[in-house]
Write a structure and sequence with these properties.
This protein has 278 residues and is of the alpha+beta class. It has 2 domains: 114 residues; 148 residues, Kinase associated domain 1, KA1 (TATA-Binding Protein, 2-Layer Sandwich). It has 7 helices and 6 strands, in the order ααααβαβαββββα. Strands 1, 2, 3, 4, 5 and 6 form a 6-stranded antiparallel beta sheet that branches. Helix 2 runs parallel beside helix 4. The longest helix is centred in the middle third of the chain and has 30 residues. About 6% of the residues have low confidence.
Length: 278
């Protein structure tokens, strides 16, 4: 190599490295956006649970992180297509990790969005709509029926919020009904208390003599609290009891089906084989 060729080779090497470095800026952005989406969503949820901000702000943070995750995935696909021939192994790893983290977060949050489309936008579920189990120790939220869906539905026009709630409940949760058990009221309440504590619920009151149990379940991240009341009454025949359960979320309009699932699973464990009361 001559003295004139050496500087030229150096210039060519630098010029080939600069485009590659410029191209991989997107790779770093994908990694930062993907990890950032997961971090942002986690902080939004945990911060809500710790009381740093209102739950509505936390939900907005989770939604914002969801959009950031989608952006990371799309940006990663674009980056891989743009530099598909000159992509180095380290660049590919950065981009892949960012996309994978974003995909995990987006997929997880996406399941909640899908769930919201498949369940009614209510947060109060009961086995008995005509004679609701009543909270006496825990306080039922004051805005419990303020945002019941169906106000603009022609089929529900003229109905009160409680009537709309009952209609929506019956349509989507018609399988949730009172159950009968061949055990006395005190035995059922005692068993219910054990099951509630085994689930990590905070039992507010357990009164076998009244046939009433009230408890609260708290979610893991957001620390959302849902209140439960169990009502157990003796059958007229004197043999066995009839069990009713109600589960209500303290905040939010839609519970994403959580209360219905809680009632179904708890009664199934309490009674073994659930038999609908006539």
């Amino acid at each position: 190599m001559t003295d004139q060729q050496a500087p030229q080779a150096t210039v060519n090497a630098k010029s080939s490295q600069e485009p590659r470095a410029q191209k991989d800026i997107l790779g770093y952005l994908v990694l930062i956006a993907g990890v950032g989406a997961l971090f942002w969503g986690a902080v939004a949820a945990v911060g809500t649970g710790w009381g740093f901000w209102a739950y509505t702000s936390g939900l907005k943070g989770v939604a914002g992180a969801f959009l950031l995750g989608i952006a990371a995935i799309l940006l990663g696909l674009l980056q891989m297509w743009r530099v598909r021939k000159s992509y180095t192994r380290s660049s590919r790893i950065r981009c892949s990790v960012g996309m994978l983290v974003a995909l995990v977060y987006v997929g997880w949050i996406g399941t909640f969005f899908v769930k919201a489309l498949t369940v009614p936008a209510i947060h109060d579920v009961s086995t008995d709509l005509a004679d609701l189990p009543v909270f006496k120790t825990l306080q039922l939220r004051t805005d419990n029926l303020d945002n019941v869906p169906g106000a603009d539905d022609s089929k529900m026009r003229g109905l009160t919020p409680e009537q709309r709630w009952a209609m929506v409940h019956q349509k989507d949760y018609g399988d949730i009904r009172s159950v009968r058990v061949n055990e006395t009221v005190p035995v059922v309440i005692a068993k219910a208390e054990r099951l509630a504590k085994a689930r990590g619920w905070d039992v507010a009151v357990s009164l076998p003599e009244e046939g009433r149990l009230e408890a609260t379940e708290t979610s893991a991240f957001f620390q959302f609290k849902d209140d439960v009341v169990l009502r157990v009454r003796p059958l007229d025949t004197g043999e066995g009891s009839i069990v009713d359960m109600r589960s209500v979320s303290r905040v939010g309009q839609s519970d994403l089906g959580v209360n219905a699932k809680r009632v179904r699973t708890f009664l199934a464990d309490l009674t073994g084989t659930v038999t609908a009361a006539q």
